[in-house]
């Protein structure tokens, strides 16, 4: 809060200190911007105090975290069910719930202190499209089936794919937020993806003109899981 000379409190949107950031945040979040501001304040206060986000990240909270995650919504179809694996402080899952109320989102997180934070945030923001679930992805294979799985800074793709793909329906998509090593990680994950019989993979960039650089996603489309082939065996041609 900023306090003017008269002593009356004036609310300043959390960390939106320049016209460019304000304009982009309004474009991305639209009518949901006040809710996003509440979440930003919760992240920069209790989120930092509880160690869910580093204090050095506060100054770049909007561009590096909130807007960077919100633009992932460009790649998610309407009314999809989504699981955010290793949700942590809710990035990107909670942001997607704010910007896309049509999505049914599960925030999957194994640590109690983080699920407590997420439960508080969901209650404070009055998000009716979010479920907080404590546990690891591998514990919910066969129990939870969704259209889309998201993850940010959780694990290399070859490990993440092994956790996420069993949660996806055939044709469902893993959208992994990755940085400069996205292409290398996709190549390294080839054997794992092959064992799961994925339909396709690609690199996407979302948020052009809103975040610099654009957010890089690895998209993996799930197929019916294929059995592991014996060494030296070949696929039959049709």
UniProtKB/TrEMBL annotation:
Single GO biological process annotation from the record: methylation
Q: Does the keyword Transmembrane helix apply?
A: no
Q: What protein does this entry describe?
A: Ribosomal RNA small subunit methyltransferase G
Instruction: Name a Pfam family for this protein.
Output: GidB
Which NCBIfam families does the UniProt entry name for this protein? rsmG_gidB
Q: Which residues bind S-adenosyl-L-methionine?
A: 86, 91, 137-138, 152
The answer to keyword Calcium applying to this record is: no
Q: Which PANTHER family is this protein grouped with?
A: S-ADENOSYL-L-METHIONINE-DEPENDENT METHYLTRANSFERASES SUPERFAMILY PROTEIN
Q: Report the function annotation for this chain.
A: Specifically methylates the N7 position of a guanine in 16S rRNA.
Write out the transmembrane intervals: none
Q: Name one GO molecular function term.
A: methyltransferase activity
Gene3D superfamilies, alphabetized: Vaccinia Virus protein VP39
> Per its UniProt entry, what is the enzyme's top EC class, as one word?
transferase
Where would one find coiled-coil regions in this protein? none
Gene expressing this chain: rsmG
Q: Which organism is it from?
A: Actinomadura parmotrematis
Keywords attached to this entry: Cytoplasm, Methyltransferase, rRNA processing, S-adenosyl-L-methionine, Transferase
- Which family would the database say this protein is a member of? Belongs to the methyltransferase superfamily. RNA methyltransferase RsmG family.
Question: Which SUPFAM superfamilies does this chain map to?
Answer: S-adenosyl-L-methionine-dependent methyltransferases
Quote the CDD domains the UniProt record gives. AdoMet_MTases (cd02440)
List the subcellular locations.
Cytoplasm
Q: Which domain of life is it from?
A: Bacteria
């Amino acid at each position: 809060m900023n306090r003017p000379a008269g002593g009356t409190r004036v609310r300043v949107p959390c960390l939106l200190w320049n016209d460019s950031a304000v304009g982009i945040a309004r474009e991305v979040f639209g009518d949901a911007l006040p809710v996003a501001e509440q979440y930003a304040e919760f992240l920069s206060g209790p989120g930092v105090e509880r160690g869910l986000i580093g204090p050095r990240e506060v100054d770049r909270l909007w561009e590096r975290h909130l807007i960077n995650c919100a633009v992932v919504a460009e790649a998610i179809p309407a009314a999809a069910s989504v699981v955010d694996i290793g949700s942590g402080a809710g990035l990107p899952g909670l942001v997607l719930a704010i910007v896309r109320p049509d999505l049914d989102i599960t925030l999957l997180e194994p640590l109690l202190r983080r699920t407590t934070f997420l439960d508080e945030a969901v209650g404070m923001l009055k998000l009716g499209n979010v479920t907080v679930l404590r546990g690891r992805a591998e514990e919910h294979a066969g129990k939870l089936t969704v259209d889309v799985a998201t993850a940010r800074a959780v694990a290399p793709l070859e490990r993440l794919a092994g956790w996420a793909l069993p949660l996806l329906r055939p044709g469902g998509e893993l959208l992994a937020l990755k940085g400069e090593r996205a292409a290398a990680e996709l190549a390294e994950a080839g054997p794992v993806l092959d064992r799961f019989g994925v339909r396709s993979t690609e690199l996407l960039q979302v948020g052009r003109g809103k975040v610099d650089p654009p957010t890089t996603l690895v998209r993996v489309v799930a197929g019916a899981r294929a059995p592991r082939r014996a060494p030296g065996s070949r696929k039959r041609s049709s």
